[in-house]
Write a structure and sequence with these properties.
Helix content is about 55%, strand content about 10%. The protein has 2 helices and 4 strands. The chain is mainly alpha-helical and about 90 residues long.
Length: about 90
């Protein structure tokens, strides 16, 4: 899990932290580190989701209203109804 750090090394690190920080502050620091890691994971997930949404928008953009070059009026794009072959205006 931690690469080349084994159980004996983790115990030594824990004991040094316990001596330096003290038994009363160690749980508080552990909670703070845990909350920080959770916030970091949440932020990275939000960034991943926003990048995926932007990629989808670039690949499949939503059709925009067309503007007539002569009159300057907006025209709605016509879509065919697949069942009847009729044209509908959206």
């Amino acid at each position: 899990m931690f690469g080349s750090i084994g159980m004996p090394e983790l115990l030594v690190i824990f004991l040094i932290a316990l001596i330096v920080i003290g038994p009363k502050k160690l749980p508080e620091i552990g909670r703070a580190i845990g909350k920080g890691i959770a916030e970091f994971k949440k932020a990275t997930e939000e960034i991943k989701e926003s990048i995926e949404v932007e990629d989808e928008d670039i690949i499949n953009p939503e059709p925009e209203d067309m503007i007539d070059s002569i009159s300057g009026k907006k025209e709605k794009e016509e879509k065919k109804d697949g069942d009847r072959g009729e044209k509908t205006v959206s």
